[in-house]
Amino acid sequence: MGNFAKSDTNPLEYVKIIPDSKSHIFIKDDGICIEECENKPCTYYCPTRVFYWEDDSIKILYKRCIECGACPFGCPYDNIAWENPRGGYGVVY
Amino acid sequence: MGNDRYDVVVVGAGPAGSSAALLMANNNLSVAMLERGPYPGSKNMSGGTIASMPFQEILPEYWNIDGIPLERKIVSDELWMLDNDSAVKMGFSGKKFGYAPYNKFSILRYKFDKWYADQAVAAGAKLFNNCLAIDLVYHKTGLLSKKVDGVVLEGGDIIHADLVVLAEGSSAALTQKIGLRQRLNPADMTLYVKEVLELPSGKIEERFSLEGDEGAVIGMVGYPTSPAIGKGGIWTNKDSLSIVVGAYLNQIVNKGLNPLQLMERFKSHPMIKKLIEGAKPIKYLAHTIPKGGFKKIPTLVDDGVIVVGDAAEMISGRRGIDLAMITGKFAAEAAAQACALDDYSRETLSSYVKRIKGSFFYENMRKGKNVEEYFNTYQDSDFLITKAMNDLAFKYFKQDLENNKIRLRKMIEELKNMQPLQKTGKDLLYGLQNWEVW
Ligand SMILES: Cc1cc2nc3c(=O)[nH]c(=O)nc-3n(C[C@H](O)[C@H](O)[C@H](O)COP(=O)(O)OP(=O)(O)OC[C@H]3O[C@@H](n4cnc5c(N)ncnc54)[C@H](O)[C@@H]3O)c2cc1C
Ligand code: SF4
Ligand code: SF4
User: What is the pTM assigned to this prediction?
Assistant: First the structure.
């Protein structure tokens, strides 16, 4: 399936998120994304498209994260460090 | 709050944590319950329904308790095998399920979990919202031995306790950090997305053939997640529908699927479209389910610590909330015993493990092991079997000009062309066991 930026629906319209001032998601080693990871699955398995590829590295829109818990496990190189946002921050269903 | 001491600190105010806190407080233990969200349920999602019988073990006749946010009593349960523009439907409707003690209720977690945690608070537990636990603290019990003695909060404050109950749900950061749970593979979990769609109650009753506060659940396999093994589903709430779709994470990754696109595609299926027509999306949610099953059950107790609910991988079939509740109850029973003996060692707490091993769901999980393995090996089986069933049903119901013998022969020929009949039989057998599973 293609890139869902092409889809005109934006599910974040009806999600409430209280964003922290700093990210709770990090790439451990940018080199791995460039050299080893051909398909860059983080750019499609994330339900809110937090990750995108630009200028030879993965960029992280952590303020879109709805804390599904998938990204540290979905990355085939265990290259995503994901922590719970600080108490009170993040998604509020 | 810093440096307080309690008998028990419970990490996480989902169904597992609140059950443990409620029953422990009833037993006069001092309990602190920590929730990282602004209120319990603010981070949580299910399909979903809550099973009546297990819930009654904790709160008998819970449906009579003031303010309980139950959506609908489920009287109709269906499984649809979906193809592109058709469906083979199986199901059961039982009016009996509309009367106490009921079978199950649909719920929305952002309402339910809050209410349930309040029951624990009413029983005497102290709830701290906006409160993330980031580590455990230990105290030395011997030259080489140590015992968990509380939790560290972000910012460094410590809450001391004789017992820590880890009820932190699917991602289970602390359980992993202290080495009780191994890292899961993407094949050991499913990822689901959900939308809540607002629809007037009258329309819901009309579309799903319901009366009053009766409710329906439809589980779906095949089309919603093909080519991956996964499921879709629709739950009726009071004045909204929950629509859910998702699959094994490794298959989402390997097959290049995007969960939101799965949702879009699912919603545009002609038979789904009709059910949700005019309904307005008001929420979008996503969550993983730990599906490592029997072989990935973590170490359940250690000195001063018990793991419950999703953190302990207690998922069997479609059921998770009730297992979370029952493991919370078992933890409370083990805690009462430990408190009486004033001994929170692993040996004493292992009565918790014994209770789990004697439970109905442990046996189910043990049996379910083969099903998971099968679906990891034959990742196209769901798709093949739903396709075959739809093709067969089409031929079976179609009024044509051939005699029955020829029709039957053609149907069998077609089945054989798809794959060996024996394999189709096996797919069906394992499918029936798996489709119960969310
Ligand atoms: C799509 C989907 C459909 C489902 N459908 C059903 C269904 O129909 N029926 C059913 O029985 N089950 C269903 N389940 C499973 C069910 O949701 C889970 O089994 C259940 O929520 C587990 O409860 P829990 O209390 O263990 O964890 P959770 O409900 O996940 O609660 C964990 C809590 O801990 C908090 N927390 C986590 N870490 C920390 C920390 N470090 N500090 C403080 N707080 C923390 C979280 O914010 C959360 O509130 C479904 C699951 C999904 C994803
Ligand atoms: S999936 Fe992992 S390794 Fe691949 S691009 Fe994303 S973060 Fe990098
Ligand atoms: S936790 Fe889920 S929503 Fe958040 S970044 Fe990871 S995959 Fe995306």
Answer: 0.93
